[in-house]
Write a structure and sequence with these properties.
209 residues, mainly alpha, 66% helix
Length: 209
């Protein structure tokens, strides 16, 4: 009845790591808007152009371009272009080795690839760089659930919820983890409440079916 659906949980991830459009990147806002409305081909095209056409994006450690790399990586992942997404996040790590975002993106890729051990390593690195990265905590929880470590997973979901109370997907994952651990009654209660929220996604509502 209950399963963790990783692709659905990735929706909207990129905006958690991107910065406001930099003055040197006037096309960045357009790329973000294309991604937000679900126009992934346009978003991917725009992000790639930003990275290719701006010399600053070829300079290792330039924070102004991290937004384009993160937007591209998560857009590719949403489009199920997993190898290209991994390549993008690997490149982002070489460019921004001290930022949590690229490692979190790589962890999400490993989840989709059904490689929870590699995912855990990526999320650990992300959290070592930024212990308050809610998406990394959430991803760490998903990986723990894949190993059957539901108590540890739920602790990570709760920590992510404290950092970002408006992220419904974190609490939805908590409920799914409870169901996997055998507490289906409480899981259904939480999912029913979440499904009535005006911010509930189709994925959250689907978890009740």
């Amino acid at each position: 009845l209950f399963t963790l659906s990783f692709l659905g949980l990735l929706s909207g991830c990129a905006t958690d790591f991107v910065s406001p459009p930099h003055e040197d990147y006037p096309d960045l806002k357009a790329a973000h808007l294309a991604r937000a409305r679900g126009d992934l081909p346009v978003a991917i095209h725009d992000y790639r152009n930003i990275i290719k056409e701006n010399p600053c994006c070829q300079v290792r450690g330039n924070p102004a371009c991290e937004a384009a790399y993160m937007g591209l990586g998560f857009s590719l992942l949403d489009a199920n272009a997993v190898p290209e997404a991994k390549e993008t996040f690997d490149k982002a790590i070489t460019m921004f080795p001290n930022c949590a975002g690229p490692y979190t993106g790589l962890g999400m890729v490993f989840l989709v690839m059904d490689q929870p051990e590699n995912a855990l390593e990526a999320f650990r690195t992300a959290l070592s760089l930024d212990p308050r990265c809610a998406k990394a905590l959430n991803g760490y929880g998903i990986a723990q659930d894949m190993f059957g470590n539901h108590e540890a997973a739920q602790a990570n979901y709760r920590a992510a919820m404290e950092l970002d109370p408006l992220a419904i997907s974190f609490e939805s994952n908590l409920a799914l983890s409870m169901a996997l651990a055998g507490n289906e009654r409480e899981a259904i209660r939480i999912l029913e409440r979440l499904s009535r929220s005006p911010n509930a996604t189709a994925r959250v509502r689907q978890n009740l079916s």
